[in-house]
Design brief:
This protein is mainly α. It folds into two domains: 64 residues, no CATH class; 118 residues, no CATH class. The chain is 64% helix and 4% strand. It is flat and about 75 Å long.
């Protein structure tokens, strides 16, 4: 069905406004189109004004939190390392004690689980205090990725929410981010770098 048939076969002249993306009708007999365009334009203006206001609010929050971004990242690193080290402590030291069904015998620790526990315990402490945090976080990220595919992933339960592997995936990517960024502030690495004497070229 043609446009001329829709508007009573009246010839029309349309000018394409590249800046607005509309076709404006110039025929006086089709003033309804012009009124509709004006109404839509007013509605769009209100929507865009509200959207700009919301974007300004978001930018205000970003500017406020952006001032504290290094310290927020340090808190992320400290808390992530603190949470990780207790997984290793539970595997290697038995603390905190695992909740097992009554009457079940304690399971022996396999060599692979012992290695994973050592990475979790030592690596978690290093990440928390910020000592060689990038290296420790890289090892922890790889270990958790391997743990996900060995202990959780299967074709029958493909999604992490199905195979109970969400925590391993989240930990893996958090530590990968820490490995890519380093220790940052509030860390042993920053103290060592600050105390390291500078050479003549660095002054």
């Amino acid at each position: 069905m043609s446009i001329g048939f829709i508007f009573n076969n009246t010839p029309k002249i349309f000018d394409k406004k590249l800046s607005e993306g509309f076709f404006i009708c110039k025929n006086e007999k089709n003033s309804r189109v012009s009124r509709l365009y004006s109404t839509n334009r007013a509605v769009c203006a209100k929507i865009f004004s509200r959207l700009k206001f919301r974007l300004k609010e978001i930018k205000i929050i970003e500017r406020f939190l952006g001032k504290y971004e290094p310290y927020i990242y340090a808190l992320l690193r400290i808390i992530a390392g603190f949470l990780l080290l207790w997984h290793g402590s539970q595997k290697l030291l038995g603390f905190p004690p695992q909740q097992t069904p009554p009457g079940s015998a304690p399971q022996s620790l396999s060599p692979m689980m012992a290695v994973a526990g050592a990475i979790e315990l030592v690596g978690g402490i290093m990440i928390m205090i910020g000592l060689l945090a990038g290296f420790a976080a890289f090892l922890a990220s790889g270990m958790l990725a391997v743990a996900y595919f060995m202990a959780h992933f299967s074709m029958q339960a493909f999604l992490p929410i199905q195979n109970k592997g969400e925590l391993a995936v989240l930990y893996s990517f958090v530590f990968l981010y820490i490995a890519s960024r380093g220790a940052g502030v509030w860390s042993v690495d920053s103290l060592l770098n600050r105390a390291k004497p500078r050479t003549v070229g660095e002054i």
